[in-house]
Specification:
Blueprint lengths: L2 E5 L2 E4 L4 E8 L7 E7 L6 E6 L5 E3 L7 E6 L4 E6 L8 E8 L5 E3 L3 E6 L1
Parallel strand pairs: 2-11
Antiparallel strand pairs: 1-3, 3-8, 4-5, 4-9, 5-6, 7-8, 9-10, 9-11
């Protein structure tokens, strides 16, 4: 059974930092692309960052230069380091394990709230 579990969300002041973690089990982690997405109230889910099995990364325009995605194969875990947080970063953050468009496993999400 595939499990994707996020942690590390919370309340932080604007300008602060948080690190999200996502543990994925029940899959061959090494071949999966791992992604972080977010959804704010009333808005569509959007890509935050994605990292392939070979370590290539893609970032959403709004987080470039502030967020960093990384992965640890020994722990089957992907991280999202978020610096210089803004109020507009407030959202539920979701982790996804992806193998093409046909195989996507989602976590339950973790709330990030940035107070101004």
């Amino acid at each position: 059974q595939v499990q994707v579990v996020e942690s590390g969300g919370g309340l932080v002041q604007a300008g602060g930092s948080l690190r999200l973690s996502c543990a994925a089990n029940g899959i061959i982690f090494s071949i999966m692309t791992m992604g972080w997405y977010r959804q704010a109230p009333g808005k569509q889910r959007e890509l935050v960052a994605r990292i392939t099995s070979s370590g290539d990364t893609v970032y959403g325009d709004s987080v470039k230069g502030r967020f960093t995605i990384s992965r640890d194969g020994a722990k089957n875990t992907v991280y999202l380091r978020m610096n210089s947080l803004k109020s507009e970063d407030t959202a539920v953050y979701y982790c996804a394990a992806e193998r093409g468009s046909q195989q996507v496993y989602w976590g339950q999400g973790t709330q990030v709230t940035v107070s101004s």
